[in-house]
């Protein structure tokens, strides 16, 4: 699964991406040793990933094993990372490393005293090879706890070129034009969008892109920090905009009821699977990994994307996200776990998953040629090129009880809104009530 960030990019980063090469000097940094110094040890890693994402991350873990001799064991937590990890710690079975998909969860873990600060080696690599924003989001009260290994570009709308060509539609530049194009696709025999309403996090991403473009970055930052209430008129306006899509049965494959029974992988299947039901699916760059790995679609030919379009006269949004590796104090092998983080900080580790697909690295030393296709390179350039206008996924910045828990908070309330989008003002009030409680706790 995937998630978000704000970013200040150095000219060195931009140059590296523009040249498609390591423009900042230095070859791959090795970490964790190359002498099998961890032979006989096992590192347990917990994370939300499943399916192709878990498979590709395993390739990174296998490369770590080949380098250090340490065995690894991956444990999938499902969406409720906070609850699962908390119960494992209480049961005396804490993993060594957790891949945390939300800033709010990382902050929660740190404040509970569960995390070890990153080693000097890892922190030095972050300072040298990552834009400052990644350190900011990995830090709590001045201490660096999280290494952002995987980034996501959450402002990409993926489509079947054949479906759009058959409808005579070109990638739109505005939100209204996207809905109009969707009706044209629908008239040609396919629904416009597959919506993964069973996964609440996809609905928060829809909202965030609309809100960032329509309300602007200042209000986005204020709402993310709960310095602006969810009852603000800007929130009601964004929900109204989103509701127009949700209630249009021509635009959503199977209508609202089917959308609520569609998870993220299934939404990708509805567009790129053997029996297409829709022409487009909105989600992050990781759609490419599913389309390629599970449905053998050639990225750039059978599957492509256009940037999430500007809403209501605003600028096109760029919402980002990411998964941070943290080391738990109570893990049985935290020392080897920290060696894994030192390895994950290197371009060498990032290149393993980059080659496999469905992955973006925030490491500016990663050579763009490591990515397996031009579309992913274009996605990376789009993310980096947005500069400091990028915003980290809002729900991932919130306390987990509000922004990152299945069946609760924002995830559930937006699912309720998908089911019945007739009362944006009432939904805003419920969101504010849930947010106020979560931020107070």
From TrEMBL:
Family: Belongs to the bacterial solute-binding protein 1 family.
InterPro entries membership: Bact_solute-bd_prot1 (IPR050490), SBP (IPR006059)
Xref: PANTHER family: ARABINOSE-BINDING PROTEIN-RELATED, OSMOPROTECTIVE COMPOUNDS-BINDING PROTEIN GGTB
Alphabetically ordered keywords of this record: Signal, Transport
Endpoints of the signal sequence: 1-23
One Pfam family linked to the record: SBP_bac_1
Organism: Streptomyces diastatochromogenes
The UniProt record lists the keyword Signal: yes
Protein name: Sugar ABC transporter substrate-binding protein
